[in-house]
Amino acid sequence: MIRRAAVILVGALVLVALIVAVSNPSLVGAASESTSREGSEADNSLVRSHSPILGPDDAPVTILEFFDPACEACRAFYPLTKKILNTYPDQVRLVVRYTPFHGEVSETAIRVLEAARLQGVFEPVLEELLARQNQWAAHGSFDEAAILEIASQAGLDSTKAQEQLDSPEVQAVFEQDREDVKANQIRQTPTFFINGEQLDPFGMQELVDAVQREVAKLPAEEGDL
After folding, report:
1. Burial of 184 per CB tally in 10 Å (0-12, 13-18, 19+)
2. 8 Å CB contact between 179 and 46
3. How many Å separate Cα 78 from the centre of its chain?
4. Is-contact 119 160, C-beta < 8 A?
5. For residues 12 and 18, what is the distance between their CA atoms, to the nearest angstrom?
6. Distance CA 13, CA 93 (A)
7. H or E stretch at 16
8. According to the model, what pLDDT value does residue 184 have?
9. Reduced DSSP (H G I as helix, E B as strand, rest coil) percent helix, strand, coil of the chain, to 5
10. 3-state SS class at 103
11. How far apart are CA 146 and CA 4, in angstroms?
12. How does strand 92-98 pair with strand 61-67?
């Protein structure tokens, strides 16, 4: 009798579940959909979905740089990071996080770079601004017109950029990156993270070595050039 009652109870529960599924199928998938959304969420305080990326989006090794376009050290490191990307074109990507440590000049350059990202010309504008940094940010000087002129020569649509610089979208990116700088206690630029681990000790050779170690961990078909 007990076994028969148990069978009847199980059958009743199954019937209820079927009725729920037929009458409101969204309830059945709600939990799995929620889990899927959480699992697919790529944003964190180091990497945001809006962050500019140089190199393949799905590269297994990530160099994350907290970067100030007005920073002379950032300019000095850029040829090295570019060389690393060229050495490992399929294995390494560079993710850029905006870090306005030099006041108004940094903020303006960051907004111009973000407008360039929205227009699909981030990399050429970045390279031109760094190559000619002394023309718009030398020794604390600030020449906003020069920033826009240099960026325009690198492919930026300056008319469209004027609308984008103070747009809610660009402002949201700027504020989010500034919050993440604080959350990660970034004190200087550039600050690098390699696959989530901060580069320490800091230095050019140390950066090269850290990337080489991560590439060496990859399966042969990913690590080989």
Report:
1. middle
2. no
3. 17
4. yes
5. 10
6. 52
7. helix 2-23
8. 95
9. 60, 10, 30
10. coil
11. 85
12. parallel
Q: Within a 10 A sphere around the Cβ of 165, how many other Cβ atoms? A: 18
- As a whole number of angstroms, the distance between CA 222 and CA 225 comes to 8
* CA distances (Å), origin 5, targets 2, 8, 11, 146: 5, 5, 10, 83
What separation in angstroms does the CA of 158 have from each of 57, 85, 103, 173, 206?
A: 27, 29, 22, 20, 38
- The two three-digit tokens of residue 16, written as one number: 């209820």
Separation between Cα atoms, residue 7 and residue 81, nearest integer Å: 66
Q: Tokens in use for 55?
A: 């190199």
Tokens coding 115: 């407008």
Give the span between the Cα atoms of 42 and 55, in whole angstroms.
18
Amino acid at 89: P
Is the pTM value of this prediction over 0.90?
Answer: no
pLDDT tens for each residue of 57-116: 999 999 999 999 999 999 999 999 999 999 999 999 999 999 999 999 999 999 999 999
Q: What is the pLDDT of residues 11-54, one digit of tens each?
A: 444 433 434 344 443 333 433 333 333 333 356 889 999 999 99
Q: How far apart are the first and last CA of the chain?
A: 70
Say if CB 142 and CB 108 are below 8 A apart. Answer: yes
Q: What is the pLDDT of residues 168-208, one digit of tens each?
A: 999 999 999 999 999 999 999 999 999 999 999 999 999 99
